[in-house]
Amino acid sequence: MINRRDVITLLGGAATWPLVARAQQAAMPVVGFLSGRSPGSDAHLVEGFRRGLRKNGFTESQNVALEFRWADGRLDRLPAMAGELIERKVAVLFAGAADVAAGALRVASAIVPVVFATGSDPVETGLVASFNRPGGNLTGVTVITNTLWPKRIEILRELLPTTPLIALLVNPTNLAHLSATRELNDATRKLGQEVLILPASVEADFETIFAALVEKRASALVVSDDALFTNRRDVLAALAARHAVPAIYGRRDFAIAGGLMSYGASPLDQYYQSGAYVGRILRGAKPADLPFLLPTKFELTLNLRTAKALGLTVPDTLLARADEVIE
Fold this sequence. Notes:
This protein has 327 residues and is α/β, with parallel strands linked by helices. The protein has helices spanning 4-10, 19-27, 39-55, 78-87, 102-108, 148-159, 176-189, 206-215, 227-231, 233-242, 252-256, 267-282, 304-309, 316-321; strands spanning 30-35, 65-70, 92-95, 114-118, 138-142, 165-170, 194-199, 220-223, 247-249, 261-265, 298-303, 324-326. A 7-stranded mixed β-sheet has the order 7-6-8-9-10-11-12, with helices on both faces. Strands 2-1-3-4-5 form a 5-stranded parallel β-sheet, sandwiched between helices. The longest helix is centred in the N-terminal third of the chain and has 17 residues, at 39-55.
């Protein structure tokens, strides 16, 4: 039978925490919060998570403690960070980077209940048995539905009716890139649309992929959902502007950073639902009995400043459907 020390060893080791921290834990349950992104970009998501906890009667510093670990885009650090949180003897582990830390989460779930937010199909990646009955010791929320990629292509083609070649930016170290590539190909095949797959696993790849995009004369770019891309959204938006490439992203943060537009499930709602699930587990619910949740809220954000800089006129029909327009 696997024990806590075995788990920590498998996850890459962990720090020894001060005795005072253990004394604080004895007073209230500790929730581990693991993310591949950074606190600066995700402050609003953390607040959404806290709201979910409060829905179930848990308020940070009053009757629950949050222990954060941020990888800041350095995704190779996630397994060791998960190990640190296990060493901290957290009551529940929340992971906002499931697609790049799946192995670590499987190991962690042998010791502690795990709630995770993912950008891929958790059944396909083997993290849960089914959406309705996850089984094991993991459950969570996904931002992916089978309508998401066709909708992104529809929006892109509405703005750019003539797009001979569309490029898709993926991170090959992220399990979600497999479903993203498949679903985008399925959506574009029906339209006779050509797709160019561009892989980038570190920031140093960005210049190369944009050079390839220009060389192949791709007329638009779709950026898949990934912690690396989100953390470096300013860089990606600047490169798209420099090369005059219209791009659609999965998160509103990109449009705020100067990207042309974004369409995707609401990450704020995803983190709220995750916090609510953590609260239910703290109250005694078992992850195996909590259905894996699909997104219910979607957001379309348009940046008209960027559209103007690219020489694009946004159709009134698209403007009318936007949840947010950046003038």
